[in-house]
Amino acid sequence: MRTTDPTVIAFAQVLLEGEGIDSFVMDVHMSTLEGGIGLFPRRIMVADSDLFLARAVLADNNISDGL
Fold this sequence. Notes:
Residues 2-60 form the DUF2007 domain. By secondary structure, the protein is an alpha+beta fold.
């Protein structure tokens, strides 16, 4: 998924962790380059084997940013 909202990223990570899905947030340090204005989205990546379950967990919780 991809979003510019850091609260959605944090919520999504907690949901995924609760289901035993490891995730990794990419583009975290872009905020330093952009001045913290939220221009560049951050991405949460999961393993290919967890993708189906991760999408289901996020969709069940009304998180659909960039899925």
